[in-house]
C-alpha cells in the first residue's frame, strides 16, 4: 500500500463548478499536508499547506485534513479553465511523500 | 521569487552514455532534491542533500549519483544511461526542514535510446 493514495483522474468539469480533489494516507505520523499544482510541462508549485487537522482557505481554494479518517481534500470554488492542471497531494515525516496526482480539466 | 533552474529541458542520449543534469537555485537554500516523475508512479525521490558535500539516498538511488560542491548547485549523474531511466527529472530546493515547502525547477525530460 502506498503511503499517499490519489485517484489519477482525469476529472473534467465545466467552468464555474466546485471541484473536490481527494487523497488518503496511511502514516499516522504525518503532520504537514500539502497540495501542489503542476501545469503541463512545468514543475510542481506549492498551492497550500496545512498543519495537522482542520481547514485552510485561500481565495477559491480550501484545503481540508481529517486525521481521524486519514483523508486530505482540496476544494476549488468557481473553477476556471486556468485551474486545469495536475494536483498532487503530499505529506511528510522526515521526507515528503507525494500522491501520483489527479489531472483536472476545466472546460469553458 | 525563488528560482530553481535546470540547465537542460530536453535531452536525448544513447544507452551507456554518461549524463549530467544540472540544477542551480538562487535563494541560498540548504536543502536540495532530485526526483523523477513517471506516469502512474508519481514523484519518486532519487537523492537529496542538506548541506554542501553532503548527500543522502532517496527511495530509488540505483543507477544515479549526485554532486554538491557548492551550496547553490546540485547535479544528478547517470553513470551509464539505460532505457528505463527515460523520465522527467525534477530538481527542488527548500530552506525549511520538515514543512514540505519545496520549490521545483521546470524539469528535464530525458529520453534514453
Helix-strand layout with pairing:
The complex is a heterodimer of chains A (108) and B (113).
Chain A: E1 4-6, E2 11-14, E3 19-25, E4 32-38, E5 45-51, E6 54-58, E7 61-66, E8 71-76, E9 85-92, E10 96-98, E11 102-107
Parallel strand pairs in A: 2-11
Antiparallel strand pairs in A: 1-3, 3-8, 4-5, 4-9, 6-7, 7-8, 9-10, 9-11
Chain B: E1 4-6, E2 10-13, E3 19-21, E4 23-25, E5 31-38, E6 42-49, E7 56-57, E8 64-70, E9 73-78, E10 87-94, E11 103-104, E12 108-112
Parallel strand pairs in B: 2-12
Antiparallel strand pairs in B: 1-4, 3-9, 5-6, 5-10, 6-7, 8-9, 10-11, 10-12
Taken from the alpha-carbon principal axes, the silhouette of chain A is globular
Order of helices and strands of chain A: EEEEEEEEEEE
The counted number of beta strands of chain B is 12
Major sheet of chain B: 7 strands, mixed
Query: Proportion of β residues of chain B?
Result: over 45%
As a percent range, the share of strand residues of chain A is over 45%
Summarize the structure.
The complex is a heterodimer of chains A (108) and B (113). Chain A has strands at residues 4-6, 11-14, 19-25, 32-38, 45-51, 54-58, 61-66, 71-76, 85-92, 96-98, 102-107.
Report on the architecture of this protein:
The complex is a heterodimer of chains A (108) and B (113). Chain A is mainly beta and 108 residues long. Chain A is 0% helix and 57% strand. In chain A, a hairpin with a 4-residue loop joins strand 7 and strand 8. Chain A starts with a strand and ends with a strand. Chain B is an all-beta fold and 113 residues long. Helices cover 0% and strands 52% of the residues of chain B. Chain B contains no helices and twelve strands. Chain B has strands at residues 4-6, 10-13, 19-21, 23-25, 31-38, 42-49, 56-57, 64-70, 73-78, 87-94, 103-104, 108-112. Chain B is globular, with a radius of gyration of 13 Å. Chain B starts with a strand and ends with a strand. The interface between A and B is medium-sized, with 22 and 20 residues.
